[in-house]
Amino acid sequence: MCKALSNFFTKPRIYAFFAAAAITAAFVLTLMDAFVFEKVIAAVEEDPSALTTDPEADGVVITDRSYKDKNISIEVITYHENGVIYHVAEIKLASIEYLKSAFAKDKVGKNIVETASSMAERRGAIFAVNGDYYGFRYQGLVIRNGSLYLSTKRPPEWNEVLAINRNGDMFIIREGEKTGKQYIEDGIIHTMSFGPALVLDGKALKSAELTRRITVRGEQSVSPVKNPRTAVGQVGPLHYLFVVIDGRTDQSSGMTLNETAKLMERLGCTIAYNSDGGSSSTMYLNGKVINTPVAGDPPVAGKEREISDIFYIS
Length: 314
Prior knowledge:
By secondary structure, the protein is of the alpha+beta class. 22% of the residues lie in helices and 37% in strands.
C-alpha cells in the first residue's frame, strides 16, 4: 500500500493537480477577501454634540412627501418624464450640522453592508440617500462628520471627489493633492468619492468631458448608459438637491450620465456630482423608501441593496 501511495505521488499529473488546486484556492480566497470578508477599522458612534431634530416640537409639519421645522425644510417631488421616473428632494438647512453620514452596522471597513432604510431608521433620520459605497472598493478619501477614516491615493482618473465644508459649500477636490489631515484642517466635513462631476459653475459637463472623466486605462469606470442614478447638488447657501432616478423597470428606463448632468443643470444646481447608482440608488423619507430600488439576483423591483453608507438629515 505504501508503495502504491508513493507511486501515486510521484506521478507528474498528481503534482499538477495539487498545484492547480492551490492556485484555485488562492484565487477563491482573494475573491472572498475582496467581496465577502468583513474588515473593520473603526466603530462609529453618533456625535452627541451634533444637532438633532425633535419631531414632537411645535411647528413641525410632516407629510408623506415633506418635512419642515424651523431648521430643516425637505420637499420631495416625483416626476414622470419620457419613460423615466425620478425623485427630487429639495433641502434647505439652518446649519450644515444637520447633514450627516452613517456607516453600515456603525462600522467603518470593507464589505460591511446594510440597507439604507435600516441605517436611516437606526439613526433616526428624517431623510436619507445612499452614499458612495466606499466599502466596496475601500480606497480613496473618506471624511464623514468631520472625521478622517481613509486616505489612499488612487489613479488620477478615479480621484475626483465631492467635498462639503463646514460652511455647507460643495466643491470638487482631487485625492492626493493634500493629506487627509490637511483636508480636515481646511474645514472639509464630508467627502463623496464616486463621480464624475456633473455640473460645474452652473453648467452641465459635455458628453465628451464626462466620458473623459470616467475613462480609466481605456475602460469606463462608471456606466454612461441608462441606469438608476443618485446625484447630489447645491443650489445656494445650505440649499441642496438630492436626486434619485429609477431604472431597470418597465415603468422607468433610467438615465444616461449625460442626461443626468443636463437634469441637474436644469434643476438649478451650481455644482452637482454623480454618486453610486444602479442597485444602490435609494431615497428614504419619513420612515419609508420612496423610490423603487431594484436589487437581487434575479433583480427584484422594490428590493433594497445592502450598501456601506448613507447621507442623511436628522
